[in-house]
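During the no-cost extension, the postdoctoral fellow (Dr. R.K.) reprocessed legacy sequence entries with the updated structure-token encoder. One reprocessed record is reproduced below for audit purposes.
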Amino acid sequence: MAGLTLSKDEVRSMKRARRHEQRKDGFWAKARQSREESKQRARSRGWPGPGAGSAVAVEPSLEVIGTTVQVCGLWPFVTGSAAPTVGVPLGVHLTRGFPICGDPIFYFMANLVSNPSMFVLGRPGLGKSSLVRRIEAIYEAWGVLPMVLGDLKPDHVDLVAAQGGQVIAVGPGRNAVNPLDRGPLYPMLGELPEAAEREARSDLRAFQVATVTGLLQQAGGRSLTPMEATIVSVCLRILDEEITDRQPVLPDMLELIESRATAISKIVQDQGDERVYADRTRDLTDVLRKLGPEGPYGTLFSRPTTVPIKLDRPVAFDLSSIDDSDMTLQAAVQQVCWAYGSSAVSAAKRLAAAGVVPERHYVLVMDEMWRMLRADPRLVHFIDALTRLNRTMGVGQIMITHTMNDLKLPDAEQTQMAWGFVERAGMVMLGGLAEGEMGNLASVFSLSRAEQTMITDWSSEVTINPETGRAAAPPGLGCFLMKIGKKPGVPLRVVMTDVERHVNDTNRSWAGMAREMEHHRRKATAEAVAERLAEPAEEGQVA
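Re-encoded structure tokens follow.
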């Protein structure tokens, strides 16, 4: 056989093919060896192989926090929490299980938020009030006094009463609240240094002007003219100077205007003509008469405050006696109570800074904002002024409403102002919301698609158990997304203690009816079963 001659290229190609086969054989040999060795040890997800118990997904370990006394001896089987353990313990992380803490005041003190305010949004029945009551309960134990400035349902009255606080029932036939009240600490303002006293009186005047202006606008169903607003401001200044032995009331303002005081006459520019003066002030005096003792509100706003607020215990204004159908009166009482409590706290902070009274810390809870805005969208200016004044005094603030649609007002400027309440809040708690109820939340707080889906899933309808005929708990009950600025949110579920459950039951008024319905259901079921058993069995059928 003749010899075979190969070219250099063919020789190199054969060598490359041989090396490739050797590497392939080596790879599979190593793979077989590695597989045999792996059977001798467990992997990160467990032992491999059929029936060996390898986990498809590894659930995170439950993390808890305890004191050194409670968990002594467990080292080194402990780890740090992934979230800052600062502030009120709220519950547990929805996916990781570790504790979540947070509140506006202690987050502010730890420089985690820029101002001590929190806004809570969520559909009814998903636990907004329970979340806020948890914060109120811990605050009181830590020396921060809750001030619930208008409880309409009521949601917070039982907790404040359990804390030994002051509950003031306000409404027709009950206690009155005076929109011109200077607060219980007004007589002490003279003990402040001259500059501090001037600032304190200026703050008080701002509260009074905002309160009376908002109340007059709501009662009159229109905005005040520039002349009328100036008259209100001048009247408050004159009453402050002339009435020093008691608190001025709205009838004093009406009497001052009708007396044609010189300062008011100059504003009206009546040129000494009584008829011109009467024509130009008639609309304002008509509204003041409506708010007087002969008007539809009776003496609710026209007499001195019946029960002065105390500033050394938790306080709640109980407005539950006002009919839900009378939203105008509810909003009017709300704004007066909010302003009265805010002005009292402002004076207390001024006096404490000067060493006149002990230093105390407060959190102002403003619930059911939607009622006030729905009754009169113009009151958004009143709320805006109130929130800005509270922020300058370093007082914690919690505002609560249902959805962003509650803050969508007829006027674009008013809507932007209302949305600013949420944007300026240092901390926002988002409960279950439908997709159409989120408004501009996604753009303001940079909500991710996962966060938006989570919030909308929490608002899903409940399912019904066909055996009991009762609905299960809502999927979003107690679930909230804690957002701080544009940072990723922290999903949490509020965990209640047994001690809190009773005062957190906002459906106690339906408890009797629920028991009666359950009794009738069981009775009907028992009768149906007895009737069925009493029927004679058909031939061939087992009874």
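The longest strand covers residues 144-151. The chain has 17 helices and eleven strands. The remaining legacy entries will be reprocessed before the final report is submitted.
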